[in-house]
Amino acid sequence: MQLDSRVPTGPIEKLWDQARFEMKLVNPANKRKHTIIVVGSGLAGASGAATLGELGYNVKCFCFQDSPRRAHSIAAQGGINAAKNYHSDGDSVFRLFYDTVKGGDFRSREANVYRLAQISVNIIDQCVAQGVPFAREYGGTLANRSFGGAQVSRTFYARGQTGQQLLLGAYQALERQVDARRVTMFPRTEMLDLVVIDGRARGIVTRNLVTGRIESHSADAVVLATGGYGNVYYLSTNAKGSNCTAIWRAYKRGAAFANPCFTQIHPTCIPVSGHYQSKLTLMSESLRNDGRIWVPLKAGDKRAPNQIPEAERDYYLERRYPSFGNLVPRDVASRNSKAVCDEGRGVGETGLGVYLDFSDAIKNLGASVIEERYGNLFEMYERITDENPYQVPMRIYPAIHYTMGGLWVDYYLMGTIPGLFVTGEANYSDHGANRLGASALMQGLSDGYFILPYTVGDYVANSKLERIDTGHVEFAKAEAAVAAMTKRLLSIKGHHTVDAFHKRLGHIVWEYCGMSRTRQGLETAVQEIRALRDEYWKDVTVTGSADDLNQSLEKAGRVADFFELAELMCIDALDRNESCGAHFREEYQTPDGEAQRNDDEYSYVSAWEYQGADQPPVLNKEPLHFEYVHPSARSYK
Amino acid sequence: MRLILHIWRQKNATARGAMARYEARDVNPDMSMLELLDVVNEELMLKGEEPIAFEHDCREGICGSCGFMIDGIAHGPLPATTVCQLTMRHFKDGQELYIEPWRAKSFPVIKDLVVDRSAFDRIISAGGYITVPTGSAPDGNAILVPKEDAERAMDAAACIGCGACVAACPNASAALFTGAKVSHLGVLPQGQPERHERALRMVRQFNQEAFGSCTNIGECEAVCPKQIKLEVIARLNRDFIAATWARR
Asked: Reduced to 3 states, what is the DSSP secondary structure of residue A125?
């Protein structure tokens, strides 16, 4: 496989202008003759489908939820970054670019990140014009806050519901195109295969989740905007329906999968409280601005937090990182929480938790100031845990939150299969080995509103696409394969439910391919995952039938894919003999326990190529070059 | 703790449904309502029975997927809380709960507790947007929005489209949902050019979907998990009437 990133040559600030000028255009009258499929209706999918519709293409958009407005982008709380420099505090496109490349620990492509920073300013304008109710100053201008340790105020927000408001903006733009009959929406429809004809992506096979009907859809280009795969861990902050099926089945049709082991763990989530737990709830990172993180000094200390005297507490982040203290980046904070819990010093019933204590802040600033800053978060915490954080310290623990890995794409967001585009969290492109706060929303909308509409047009104009309809034999073959898999899952009639298997899989991946990894652990994980997968295909039980609404059947197919992806994640983590960003290999750390990157040998993107069911995948490498931001070690001491 | 659940089971849109009784033992007070259903479903599947179908996704109270009636109250007894965030500690040991899907002509049942809320999408599609093609926007700060207006818009924009308002309303009216969008866009300067047309088009679609009329009962506001205020309905009425007169 040849990986050609197709990055134009020239000064970085001119690349996107140049690329746009060089792109071929589709005659406006011809656009409606081209069908474009968009799978997923989150920020990347809805914005892409709406814009392609506006341009005049015939767009078909698919989502598994009952409405495109439900996509998981809706749950993002914090905000969206943009290099507007409205505060004259020294921000610029270059600084946002610099911060993102550095924050990603030098494992992303400079040209893509620069373009993202450039486009960030257009996104805000677009969203404001759509009526997104961003927070405002009294004079009526847009308000900003600093977020995730950034030294400038560049985050735009709509209370704690920024993702919701941005998604509703994109959803409304999409619905406008539905009304104009430029976009046809297929809700409650799940993509189950990608159809590749003559080496090009030409359509998809779907299942109607209400009637169970397997259907084919042909197109001139297929866009996957299907989000991340954090649910491979079973417990994550992702929505329950988020899954890897679309990108995984595209991988099995030849699309390279990049950096699957780069998975981000968010340090401040509410800890697990029991075996029935179905998901984890995020508490905003901003809490670390005033809360102090600690655990008891002695292992096994089961006293209530307020009975542990100051001298017997270990404020481990403040101790280890005196200059950043509780504000160290996500990966560092998460790893340290795990370390103290592994030492037996974790708190709460399960021992998997650390205290986030506001008593000093309340003493210094007063309860009313704390309420003003975090009132809604404290309320949410109390709603879930029944504990009042004004009186007892919060308990928090890290949880899987975002996946930087995804299908490999070139500068044009096209994967290794011509005609297959991948946007948003589903691709690997912009965040390297670690994503900065408030950057996910920015990337989804940048891809969808401002990049995809150009690059899809260029592809369509440059390709001689024969007319293909769903009568083509490849569609029939793919439909048959999908139907066979469904039938197989229903016929096993074993002894354990899909969720029971999913929980066991999640446990393996979390244990061995989570916050810190070792060669030995990863090798164990690969064996255990294979064994469990074999058991799954012999002993899972899926009730009901294939031809009506069957939620356990839907889950069964997704979990089958998670098994395969989990193995690839471990293989990828085994290959990367270094620690970088969210990927921490215990063998590669400095004497004082910090991540040790190896730029000489691992400054590349791993793009894995599928070779068949029982064949090991082939690793292709896209070397990374840094001309503008010089690789340096991240230090928070 | 132990709970007795009476849950509506209906095989598909055309089948006749009925209540079925289930007993949940070892209920943990920290569980959410949906996690309770997960546990019941696990048991059902191990017995080879079909699980109870219910809609859910984010389980954080923001996606709007989940929702059903608990003892006749949309989203259950706790104010401002969707069923995914409703924990079992709010119920008593041994309590019996009656769980039913949203009941409204415009929300036909698909299966068990799952209903078809696509009418909401069609109301938005009819006019619940500001027409601004991608790339045609002026600088974000070119349009000044008084803080107070931004806050009021946000209050209305917080709607998650769950459908509780329709389910709670004796008329099965979607006035709160429609009013929330008309208010969100109508109080912002960006929303002014299409303000009249928007109200007319959305109300026209509202009527086509066979939602009932609003008679100011206020049940919708009482059950709304996002505490959208009745005020949005007043604004909807005002914009609709103004638009109708302007047309003459």
From this structure: helix
Which of B30, B45, B137 faces A497 most closely, judged by CB atoms?
B45
Asked if the C-beta of B161 comes within 8 angstroms of chain A's C-beta atoms, the answer is yes
Q: Would you state the pLDDT for residue A445?
A: 98
For residue B140, the chain A residues in CB contact (below 8 A) are 84, 124-125, 127-128, 134, 142
Domain boundary among B95, B111, B127: B111
Residues B199 and B236: beta-carbon distance below 8 Å: yes
Contacts of residue B160 in chain A, CB cutoff 8 Å?
164
Q: Element (H or E) spanning B38, and its range?
A: helix B33-46
Amino acid identity for residue A245 in this structure: T
Look up the domain containing A397 and give its range.
265-401
B132 and B188 co-located in one domain = yes
Distance between CA atoms of A268 and B50, rounded to whole angstroms? 37
Residues B97 and B217 in one domain: no
Q: Give this prediction's pTM.
A: 0.97
3-class SS shares of chain B: helix, strand, coil, % to 5: 40, 15, 45
Q: How far is B234 from chain A (nearest CA, A)?
A: 21
What is the span of the domain harbouring residue B103?
3-111
Query: What band does A291 get if pLDDT is binned at 50, 70 and 90?
Result: very high
Domain stop point among A401, A429, A453 = A401
Count: domains in chain A: 2
| Strand stretches in A89-150, DSSP E | none
**Residue A223 — pLDDT band, cuts 50, 70, 90?**
very high
| Number of structural domains found in chain B | 2
